[in-house]
Amino acid sequence: MVDTLQFTVIQKDVFEQLKLGKDALEEINNQMKIQDVEKLLEDTSEAIAYQEEVSQMLQNSLTDQDEDQVIKEFEELEALAIAKDALRLPSVPTTDKIGHGIKVASSTSKVGKIQEQRRQQPEKEEEEEEEEEEEEKDKQPVAVLA
After folding, report:
1. Where is 80: in which H helix or E strand?
2. Contact at 8 Å (CB) between 92 and 115?
3. Which of 14, 66, 82, 123 could form a disulfide with 62 if both were Cys (CB 3.0 to 4.6 A apart)?
4. Consecutive 10-residue runs of the chain (146 residues): their mean pLDDT?
């Protein structure tokens, strides 16, 4: 008889717990409408199908020729970016702190040639100005005192 009473108490506890579980499930189901769940599942499956289609297109879209062309275009863009960055570099100093000319090692690259041309431009102009000044001095009459 004691066993029967204990078993009945356990059955009552199980019944109450099942009832609480049912109430909690109803509460959750009231917050989630069937239409919302169906829409969510439909949207998710559409997104997955779209992603699979895009992946398939990307896998089959490039031939060897296309890939070579893409690589060539990428290298050209890289070279262009490097050239633009190189043109933004500061010019190499041509004099030391005292003002004496210094020799700068030139590079064989395009950047080095451009910098060398930029460096030589002011030097040529200075040399031409100095030559013109000397010519003007030579032309000035010299007064002889007797």
Report:
1. helix 64-87
2. yes
3. 66
4. 88 95 92 89 96 86 78 91 74 67 56 69 71 72 55
